[in-house]
């Protein structure tokens, strides 16, 4: 029973940490954008409807053009938010050999991406030895981790820390920005329709 409880707590904490490391938790709340654009949407609606020089088709074209500008404004701002994000991940690794003969293999340790949304590059990753020297970490082909393999020949100990900076993947970013945009402007239009219904 205790093991099951401990495992349940572990899964819960892992889920919380995973969620906190999602890029969507590290940028501005979308409801702030909804408030910003509902106000601008109201201005667009009033200026379009009150323009007596336009027929209905022209009004629709002008409305769509102005909304496209708002959507581009949001997309540019949101992409910048995600591109400006970075997370540093570090992990220690060591190898101790207590006798002089042979070689001890201590395996591989990796500084891994907090979630699949993140990636790293060789130029964003360093491995710092206890003595202060730096060695290159090996970055996995998909950028999900920076790793170092250690082995020790002769008696003694070697230790290091892998430090890697992760940024948001471009494919994840573009897909998420599109989802964020759809959320914001669907809500803006829904609130606008609700306001019109209340005024009728």
From TrEMBL:
Residues 53-80 form a coiled coil. It comes from the Bacteria. Keywords: Coiled coil. This is Uncharacterized protein.
């Amino acid at each position: 029973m205790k093991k099951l409880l401990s495992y349940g707590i572990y899964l819960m904490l892992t889920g919380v940490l995973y969620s906190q490391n999602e890029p969507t938790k590290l940028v501005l709340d979308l409801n702030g954008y909804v408030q910003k654009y509902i106000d601008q949407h109201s201005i667009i609606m009033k200026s379009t409807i009150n323009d007596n020089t336009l027929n209905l088709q022209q009004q629709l074209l002008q409305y769509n053009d102005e909304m496209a500008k708002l959507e581009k404004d949001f997309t540019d701002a949101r992409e910048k938010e995600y591109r400006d994000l970075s997370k540093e991940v570090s992990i220690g690794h060591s190898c101790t050999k207590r006798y002089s003969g042979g070689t001890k293999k201590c395996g591989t340790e990796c500084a891994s991406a907090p979630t699949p949304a993140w990636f790293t590059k060789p130029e964003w990753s360093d491995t710092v030895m206890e003595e202060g020297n730096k060695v290159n970490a090996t970055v996995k082909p998909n950028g999900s981790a920076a790793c170092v393999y250690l082995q020790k020949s002769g008696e003694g100990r070697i230790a290091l820390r892998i430090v890697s900076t992760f940024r948001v993947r471009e494919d994840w970013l573009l897909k998420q920005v599109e989802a964020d945009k759809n959320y914001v402007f669907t809500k803006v239009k829904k609130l606008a329709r609700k306001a019109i219904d209340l005024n009728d």
